[in-house]
Amino acid sequence: MMSNFWSMGGYARYVWPCFGFAGVVLGWNLWAARRLLAGARLRSARALAMAAGDAR
Amino acid sequence: MNVGAGQAFVLIVRRELCLSFRRPEQLFQPLVFFLIVTTLFPLGLSLQLSQLRDIAPGVLWVAALLSSLLSLDSLFKNDADDGTLEQLALSGQGLTLIVVAKTCAHWLVTGLALVVVSPIVATALDIPIAAFETMMLSLALGTLTLSWLGAIGAGLTIGLRRGNVLLSLIVLPLATPLLIFGAAATERAISGTSTVGALYFLAALCVFTCTLAPFAATAALRITLE
Amino acid sequence: MWTWFYKLASPPYVYGVAAALMPWLLGGAALAIAYGLTAGLALAPPDYQQGDAFRMIYVHVPGAILSLTVYMVMAAASAVALIWRIKVGHAVAAASAPIGASFALMALVTGSLWGRPMWGTYWAWDPRLTSELILLFIYVGVMSLRSAFEDPARGDRAAALLAVVGVVNVPIVHFSVVWWNSLHQGATIVKLGAPSMPGSMLWPLLSMWLGFMLFYGAVLCTRVQAEVLNRERQAAWVREAIKS
């Protein structure tokens, strides 16, 4: 029965790459968004530190 | 001296035409490009003249699209470069009127020129003379729509580095319905079936674009000129 | 009610709300997608025509629906930003564009993989596929236009105008299967009358749709936080906000 699942009635070589690609897109979205936010926070912290440094 | 809206329109159109004819090379280049691109397809595909008829509508329209894109650059750029555009914007005539006048003048020297030259290209692609009427009508409607789509794109990309590439990137996806129906109309004219549906659709696209695009193009210019 | 609306225009408020909402949206998305995948891959019976290949619907259709939905959100946020000059609108539009483009790409690729066994071809120039491809091009155009300007505020406004102009394509994508008889299947869910799919196949699909929507919300929250920070880098509220 499990082999039935993996073979997807013979369509396995379309179905699994299909879901795989969808997973890659979702994963990329999470990764890229997190990376963007981390970068933005870093740049903000630097900008604030520089402004504080100038004010001294 | 107070100039009415109609007078201002005519003045600006005449100015544009005058400037265009002062540099005839700028007028001929897109037309020559049109001819060259049309030649590339048969050469690249090494087709017999009789086979060309099948690909002719598509080739004609793609070439028209690409050469129109080439000429869109000059719509606002020259005036933006020397400050005339800002002066026109401040002139109190309303930016929309100016945009409409400039785009109409642009179409007269580019789109209409393309329509006039198209029989030559059509002969090279073995399009039968019976199909010329539909072909030229569809090109006229299509290039007018394209001038307006291009006005929006040109307004958004004045003064950007590699602005022409971006302009093409913006205008071409929006122009695909034009390509599809224009080529369909020409193809139906060649095969002798009814072209009415495709032509009506092209006309509808044209009217839709001509009605709404002036406002979008004006907004685009306001964003760029601010 | 209007105070809430005014609050939404405030960058620090939006930043805070996005930060708080994100885990909930992501959790909800995970649950909905988990159920959808389990039921869709294992529990739903195979289709009598397409066999197990129909299961690709569980990523293809939600991806395609999202590609259109995200565009509408992006266009609406752009319109709000342009008309009322609310900068948060630009942040939402800028955040949505890459997400929507990725969903459009997902729709095209998963559709292509589904088309090969079903129609015999990886691609066809039929109206729905073509207009979805155009949608992807418009997304790319919006993103390219935004990044081409040296002045980010001007880039935001130009990209916003293009997003609004491009919205004409969305009804074309949706109605293309109605207006033209072509290869691609007609509407099965979003149409007048009951959906034409049996329950055991429909529920996982609806769950995947919901899951993808919640997922978009979660990713949007994170991206909006970043976009707001990028536009407000030195504002006073930022100091406290990034400490958390």
Please give a structural write-up.
The complex is a heterotrimer of chains A (56), B (226) and C (244). Chain A has 56 residues and is an all-alpha fold. Chain A is 89% helix and 0% strand. The N and C termini of chain A lie far apart (72 Å). Chain B has one domain. The longest helix of chain B is centred in the C-terminal third of the chain and has 30 residues. The mean pLDDT of chain B is 89. Chain C is mainly α. At the A-C interface, helix 2 of A face helix 2, helix 3, helix 4 and helix 8 of C.
Average residue-wise pLDDT of chain B: 89
Terminal CA distance of chain B reads: 27 Å
**Tally of contiguous helical segments of chain B:** 10
What percent of residues of chain B adopt helix (DSSP H or I)?
Answer: over 70%
- Overall geometric form of chain C: globular
CATH third-level topology of chain C: Four Helix Bundle (Hemerythrin (Met), subunit A)
Q: Kindly name the structural category of chain B.
A: mainly alpha
What number of domains of chain C?
A: 1
Look at the structure and give the mean pLDDT of chain C.
88
Proportion of strand residues of chain C = under 5%
Helix content of chain C: over 70%
Task: Pick out its properties.
heterotrimer, B: 226 residues, mainly alpha, 10 helices, 84% helix, C: mainly alpha
Put the structure in a nutshell.
The complex is a heterotrimer of chains A (56), B (226) and C (244). By secondary structure, chain B is mainly α.
What topology emerges from the helices and strands here?
The complex is a heterotrimer of chains A (56), B (226) and C (244).
Chain A: H1 2-7, H2 12-55
Chain B: H1 5-22, H2 24-45, H3 49-72, H4 77-81, H5 84-90, H6 95-109, H7 111-124, H8 132-157, H9 163-191, H10 196-225
Chain C: H1 2-8, H2 11-43, H3 57-84, H4 87-119, H5 127-148, H6 152-166, H7 169-179, H8 199-231, H9 236-241
Helix pairs in contact in C: 2-8, 3-4, 3-6, 3-8, 4-5, 4-8, 5-6, 5-7
